[in-house]
Amino acid sequence: MPEVPISPAAVIELLTAEHILEPQEPITPDTDLFSMGLDSMAMMQLLLLIEERFRLTINPAEMTRERFATAAALAGFLEEKRRLAA
Predict the structure, then answer these.
(1) H-type alpha helices, the chain
(2) How far is residue 74 CA from its own chain's centroid?
(3) pTM
(4) What string of H, E and C letters represents the secondary structure of 30-42?
(5) pLDDT tens by residue, the chain, 86 residues
(6) Are 82 and 54 in contact (CB under 8 A)?
């Protein structure tokens, strides 16, 4: 099965399709996810979905506020993680 591309749009789709966040306004790549309701419980849910969708293993110590701040930041972190794992 081919790798699923990682992009800010793919991260936003995961957040909304899986109801991790239910924003009142559209999420952009640079939207502050914490201001949209992302909390530690939602981060754990998101982590499980990321590992399943993108086939990456994320160490809980890697789950920093900076990396999860925006869809763009998270996609960049995930792309780098995939590149280093290859």
Answers:
(1) 8-17, 40-54, 71-85
(2) 5
(3) 0.91
(4) CCCCCCCCCCHHH
(5) 568 899 999 999 999 999 999 889 999 999 999 999 999 999 999 999 999 999 999 988 999 999 999 999 999 999 999 999 87
(6) yes
